[in-house]
Design brief:
Elements (H helix, E strand, L loop, with lengths): L2 H14 L2 H7 L8 E6 L6 E7 L9 E7 L6 H15 L6 E7 L13 H4 L4 E5 L10 H10 L2 H17 L6 H15 L5 H7 L10 H14 L1 H14 L2 H20 L4 H8 L3 H10 L6 H9 L2
Parallel strand pairs: 3-4, 4-5
Antiparallel strand pairs: 1-2, 2-3
Helix pairs in contact: 1-7, 1-10, 5-6, 6-7, 7-9, 10-11, 11-13
Protein name: DUF4351 domain-containing protein
Pfam families: DUF2887 (PF11103), DUF4351 (PF14261)
Organism: Neosynechococcus sphagnicola sy1
């Protein structure tokens, strides 16, 4: 898969299920984190993903995530430059960790002597996806294993995961999980139609047409408007659906602001509805520095 496809796919996985990162790390934080992709100000740097703790718990670490599926000799040079520049721009951050997710060990840069002390510290964790335990009882890990499965093994693994999702206790609405499985398969078999992929999975119809998907989609909307966010961030980004992207960006901003500042007033929600896509994206970066509701008011005043 191309860098664009893997970035978009992991954005979708982590934005839908932020706890998936901690499942990979073998950790279980008591407080939920929020995930977002962040561009470092005044540079061309863009961090693949940042997991932010609630503003009420500043002592919890922030997690920087880098996903790499191809050899990049400058990976660590770029990653640590991005991290330390971000920390310089956000001095309130007290603790941080970096998680580097690599498709396999062989694509890890060989020239890393300058960063050995960081890489061997407790602050950096490297995960090699092809070394994840097989037949894990955790659906989240099995979902990530499907991303790196060979095309020959993918259909078998996907069918097994479908059975696990249907029989187990879902950590996401079933419809959302089913859609993620189909999305991974669509990325891996981009030349095949959804109907052909459904046959690979032993289904009579596309996952998105099944009753459980439709029910799960409604449940997902009720729990956080996941469908709008995912359509806006993935389909809007990849297929040019600008209107869906704007709605998805707004939904994400509302969630982030609510977690930081509590329930938003009707006036604030009205102001958010009037923002353009560029303004919504700018607000997504600015809110990292917000500490009180007055910061948001000042941001609107500056428009």
């Amino acid at each position: 898969m191309s860098r664009l496809k893997t970035d978009s796919l992991f954005y979708r996985l982590f934005s839908t299920a932020p706890h998936l990162l901690f499942e990979l790390l073998g950790e279980s934080p008591a407080i939920p984190y929020q995930f977002q992709s962040v561009e470092v100000k005044q540079t061309a740097f863009r961090l693949d993903g940042i997991f932010l703790p609630p503003a009420s718990d500043p002592d919890l670490p922030i997690y920087f995530v880098e996903v790499q599926f191809q050899l990049d000799p400058d990976l660590y040079r770029r990653l640590f430059a991005e991290i330390f520049l971000f920390l310089a721009q956000n001095p309130r951050i007290r603790h941080w960790k970096a998680v580097v997710i690599l498709a396999r060990r062989s694509i890890e840069p060989k020239q890393k002597l300058a960063y050995v002390s960081l890489l061997e510290s407790d602050q950096v964790e490297r995960i090699y996806l092809n070394q994840l335990p097989p037949d894990s009882g955790l659906p989240g890990i099995n979902l990530v294993r499907l991303v790196v499965a060979s095309r020959r093994q993918a259909a078998k693994q996907a069918r097994k995961l479908l059975t696990q999702v249907e029989q187990g206790e879902p950590w996401l609405p079933q419809g959302v999980l089913l859609e993620l499985i189909e999305t991974i398969m669509v990325y891996k078999f981009s030349e095949s139609s959804r109907e052909e992929i459904a046959k690979m999975l032993g289904l009579a119809e596309s996952i998105t047409q099944t009753r459980v998907y439709q029910e799960g989609k409604l449940e997902g909307r009720a729990e956080g408007r996941l469908e709008g966010k995912l359509e806006g961030k993935l389909e809007g980004k990849l297929e040019g659906r600008a209107e869906g992207k704007l709605e998805g960006e707004r939904s994400l901003i509302v969630r982030l602001l609510t977690r930081r500042m509590g329930t938003l007033s009707p006036g604030v929600l009205t102001q958010l509805q009037g923002l353009s896509l560029e303004q919504v994206e700018a607000l997504g970066e600015a809110l990292l520095d917000f500490a009180t509701p007055s910061d948001l008011d000042n941001w609107f005043t500056s428009l």
